[in-house]
Design a protein that fits this description.
Elements: H1 9-20, H2 24-37, E1 42-48, E2 54-59, H3 69-72, H4 84-87, H5 99-105, E3 108-114, E4 120-126, E5 129-136, E6 141-147, H6 154-159, H7 163-180, E7 185-190, E8 193-197, H8 204-212, H9 214-217, E9 220-226, E10 230-237, E11 242-243, E12 249-253, E13 256-258, H10 261-271, E14 280-281, E15 283-289, E16 294-295, E17 306-307, H11 310-330
Parallel strand pairs: 1-7, 12-15
Antiparallel strand pairs: 1-2, 2-6, 3-4, 3-6, 4-5, 7-8, 9-10, 10-15, 11-14, 12-13, 16-17
Helix pairs in contact: 1-5, 2-7, 7-8, 10-11
The structure holds adenosine-5'-diphosphate and magnesium ion (MG).
Domain DNA mismatch repair protein S5: 208-326
Keywords: DNA damage, DNA repair, Endonuclease, Hydrolase, Nuclease
Organism: Periweissella beninensis
């Protein structure tokens, strides 16, 4: 047995990376979240070999200043929260300061970034080690290229599924973020194939059409309701439009796509007997609430949240869905047209 000693930063980052970065889709999610937090209005995602060989994400957000670029890659370094109270009212998608150091620990990462009216910066980090850091011309915003993911963690690389499965997980996360942020123009390309392109004009139904097709988008109903704590709005499909899996239900809390079985259940309860067993609607439901009512600091991937008034929210969701579907009997053609 050896003496107790602290792990090197590189090793600690590699270990922590295991929690945040499971697969190429996790890289895409974290980097897109950073671009969104930087107020980008255009985000391009370019992939090679399902992201395993290369993921490139280009945003037109506010960029990182030269003197902060290296710090951005250190663990627990963030510009998004400062003190303990901030932790209870998180308005950004990121806050843990873990994504960049984690990704840089297990891949070959090059970031080019610039803030307004300042020279840009290029940094290349491979397996946690800075290889290049220099001034470089750059547009305002950030471009990041992640190559050879898991090159130094062979067990992780082996655990990946087929490229098709990995790609579908990336498409899924990009779709959900596009649905969450209709004001941002997303462009997703895998090699020569364009997999998604949204206009960024704020029209959710148009994004639904981009993802699920125009015909389906025309079979969506709007819902909207609020009480003192919650504001619920979004789109739910006509009962005739269903799928065999609940994957087509997206629930967003304060702009964050989350996984919450209870809220899905509340939605399904609203449909009641209109759904056949094993069939699920399509839905994009956006819930806004005081950040104090939601704890996002449950898991490193930030997809699970704890809600302090979950049952009240479930009731609100069930009743708005019920009431909206009840109007169908009155006016069968009462759905929106694009
Ligand atoms: P977190 O997002 O939790 O703060 P990250 O490791 O993802 O942690 O990023 C660290 C910091 O780097 C962020 O807080 C932010 O200041 C900066 N940053 C990362 N990506 C971008 C980006 N695309 N545009 C502007 N700033 C960024
Ligand atoms: Mg982040």
């Amino acid at each position: 047995m050896q003496k107790i000693h602290e792990l090197t930063t590189i090793l600690a980052d590699q270990i922590a990376a295991g929690e945040v970065i499971e697969r190429p889709a996790s890289v895409v999610k974290e980097l897109m979240e950073n671009a969104i937090d930087a107020h980008a209005t255009q985000i391009d995602i370019l992939l090679e070999e399902a992201g395993i060989k290369k993921i490139e994400i280009i945003d037109n957000g506010f960029g990182i200043s030269q003197d902060e670029v290296e710090l951005a890659f250190r663990r627990h370094a963030t510009s998004k929260i400062v003190n303990r109270t901030d932790l209870f009212k998180i308005k950004t998608l990121g806050f843990r300061g873990e994504a960049l150091p984690s990704i840089a620990a297990i891949a070959d990462v090059t970031m080019t970034t610039a803030v307004k009216d300042k020279p840009g910066m290029l940094i290349n980090i491979k397996g946690g080690q800075i290889i290049i850091k220099k001034s470089a011309p750059a547009r305002v915003g950030t471009a990041i290229v992640v190559k050879n993911l898991f090159f130094n963690t062979p067990a992780r690389l082996k655990y990946l599924k087929t490229p098709n499965t990995e790609l579908s997980k990336i498409v899924d996360i990009v779709n959900r973020l596009a649905l969450s942020y209709p004001n941002i123009a997303f462009n997703l390309k895998h090699e020569d194939h364009q997999l998604l392109k949204t206009a960024g004009n704020g029209n959710v139904q148009q994004v639904i059409a981009n993802i699920y097709g125009l015909k389906n988008a025309q079979k969506m109903l709007t819902i909207e309701t609020e009480n003192i704590d919650f504001k619920v709005s979004g789109f739910i499909s006509l009962p005739e439009l269903t799928r065999a899996s609940r994957e087509y239900i997206s629930i967003l809390i304060n702009g964050r796509y989350i996984k919450n079985y209870q809220l899905v259940k509340a939605l399904l309860t609203g449909y009641g007997s209109r759904l056949m067993v094993g069939r699920y609607p399509l839905a994009v439901i956006s819930i806004n609430m005081d950040p104090l009512l939601v704890d996002v600091n449950v898991h490193p991937t930030k997809q699970e949240v704890r809600l302090s008034q979950e049952s009240q929210l479930m009731e609100l969701l069930t009743s708005v869905v019920q009431e909206r579907l009840a109007t169908l009997n009155l006016m069968p053609d009462g759905y929106q047209n694009l």
